[in-house]
Amino acid sequence: ASRSARPPPAVRAAMPAVTVQFDPDNPEMAMTVEIPADGATVRLVKEELCRQDFTGNLSPESFSLHAVGSPDVKLDEGLAITPDLETLVLQPYDPEREAREEAARKQREEFEREEREMALRILMEEEERKAREERTAAERKAKREEVEKANRAVVEGGGPIVDGGPCLYVCSTNSIFLKKSINPRAGKIVKQKREPGSQVRATGRTWTGPSGGMWAELLPSSEGSKEESWDKAWALVDGPGFGLDGPALIDPNRPAEPELAEKVEDDDEMPQAPDCWNTDFLGNERGRCTKCGQCESFSMRAMKINPTGKGQG
Questions:
Q1: What is the CATH number of domain 17-93?
Q2: Which residues are CB-neighbours of 75 under 8 A, at least 6 positions away?
Q3: Which residue blocks in 153-231 are alpha helix, DSSP H?
Q4: Where are the domains of the chain?
Q5: Fewest beta carbons less than 10 Å away: which of 192, 234, 271, 309?
Q6: Is 291 helix (H, G, I), strand (E, B) or coil?
Q7: What pTM was estimated for this model as a whole?
Q8: pLDDT tens sequence across 227-276
Q9: Residue 117 burial by CB count (10 A; 0-12/13-18/19+): exposed, middle or buried?
């Protein structure tokens, strides 16, 4: 019987190798380190280098490995060796360099932290701005609705709108009462400050309310601030219930009312009582009777009042 053939001995697979350069400018100053076929890490390469060091002074902590082209980036010891890392550069441990790298690392981390904080702050500010705009829009909408509601509220009664009224008024007080609405029956009345003597222009249409107040339709005004201006408005001309001593608005072109002239008494024009003189029996003047003032001739009454005849004024 023929003997069965023995299987050929297993061929040991060649271990991949990593080239470690000691001087990047001199590629010949290098060492080859074989690594397992199933993979290796940077730490394993460093340990293999230490085993091959004949001086025995090399330890994994006394040097670092870097990728070719990135001498400032130290490879982490747990990093797996890949085809991109078949050539490495060995750098001895340098405390100053390590300190610089640590400072640079901390600076990068601080910069990244500041960037994250800035991005977060910008995001929060943007959210606050949007929330503020939404609140402002909601407040404006509520205010518009309130104004519209007030404008829709009307007073009952009153007369018709009449044309042919004054087209110019002068403010007689430091305030003006307005209904900022196209409808004079609107219930909302606002009081605005106004310089006495300032003018407001009107359309000539007037309306008398149920309480007797007279209102005039005004032309649009853009004077002052936005709150002080108006597009459509009715202003109080005169009426009760506003604490006014007279009309709020005056027509400067109205005819002057006749005034009762005060009767001034003039002594020269008033009829004077005739001068009364007391005389003696010989006809000599003895002086005017200042007590009587009504004597028209000599009388015993005048003699009794002023027997001396001397003036006592």
A1: 3.10.20.90
A2: 42, 64, 65, 66, 67, 85, 88
A3: none
A4: 17-93, 160-222+229-250
A5: 271
A6: coil
A7: 0.37
A8: 788 888 999 999 888 888 889 999 998 876 665 445 445 555 555 544 44
A9: exposed
